[in-house]
From TrEMBL:
Entry superkingdom: Bacteria
Catalytic reaction annotation: 2-C-methyl-D-erythritol 4-phosphate + NADP(+) = 1-deoxy-D-xylulose 5-phosphate + NADPH + H(+)
Name used for this protein in its record: 1-deoxy-D-xylulose-5-phosphate reductoisomerase
All residue ranges annotated as the 1-deoxy-D-xylulose 5-phosphate reductoisomerase C-terminal domain in the record: 1-42
Oxidoreductase as UniProt keyword: yes
Matching SUPFAM superfamilies: 1-deoxy-D-xylulose-5-phosphate reductoisomerase, C-terminal domain, Glyceraldehyde-3-phosphate dehydrogenase-like, C-terminal domain
Signal peptide (residue range): none
Cofactor needs: Mn(2+); Mg(2+)
Gene3D superfamilies registered for this protein in UniProt: 1.10.1740.10
Length: 201
């Protein structure tokens, strides 16, 4: 991973999502952001949200019920249905994508997340728990780091390491989440701080 190149980070097996989101899929920053989203959108405590590695990307989410059963949302590894649902909610549009063919043999794999190799998720839980502008700082610092990585200025593992340094630094900064202007100020502060951290590397 230390020697991973930008071209390798963009070689996603199932999606073409652009430079930032595809790189975020390689670092798992995107999964960290999705953990924060799940917490905020569904009011689920962070300790009840688990991340599982599923290379085939056919299962998009699962909800476990208190009786021990699990309901999974399955579909092709594309964003057509989520986008259509976002546009048509609460209705579902017809024929948006091809459903899973359950008559065909297939193997779907699931594995626990290795948080030592992918620290971005634990960092996202931390900023999500902290709240305020911390998630905005995490996101803004990441975008600067992704650009630096693709420009050849830093290595792959430096992305999350730098985000963590910016998140640590924001604790003493005078940042306010009570207004849109305050969050935009935090975003700009995090970008400047990320560039300063990168300049000192």
């Amino acid at each position: 991973m230390k020697r991973a190149t930008p071209a390798e980070a963009l070689r996603h097996p199932n999606f073409a999502m652009g430079r930032v989101v595809t790189t975020n899929s390689a670092t798992l920053v995107n999964k960290g952001l999705e953990v924060i989203e799940a917490h905020l959108l569904f009011d689920v405590p962070f300790d009840r949200i688990e991340v599982v590695v599923h290379p085939q990307q056919m299962i998009h989410s699962m909800v476990e019920f208190h009786d021990g059963s699990t309901i999974a949302q399955a579909g092709p590894p594309r964003m057509l249905v989520p986008i259509a649902l976002g546009l048509s909610w609460p209705d579902r549009l017809a024929d948006v994508d091809v459903p899973v063919d359950w008559t065909q043999a297939a193997t779907w794999e699931f594995a626990p997340l290795d948080e030592q190799r992918f620290p971005a998720v634990a960092l996202a839980r931390r900023v999500g728990t902290e709240g305020g502008v911390a998630p905005a700082v995490y996101n803004a610092a990441n975008e600067v780091c992704v650009d630096a990585f693709h420009d050849g200025a830093i290595g792959f593992l430096d992305i999350v390491d730098t985000i963590a340094r910016v998140v640590d630094a924001h604790v003493g900064a005078d940042l306010d989440a009570s207004s849109v202007e305050g969050v935009l100020h935090a975003d700009a502060w995090a970008r400047d701080e990320a560039r300063a951290v990168l300049a000192r590397r």
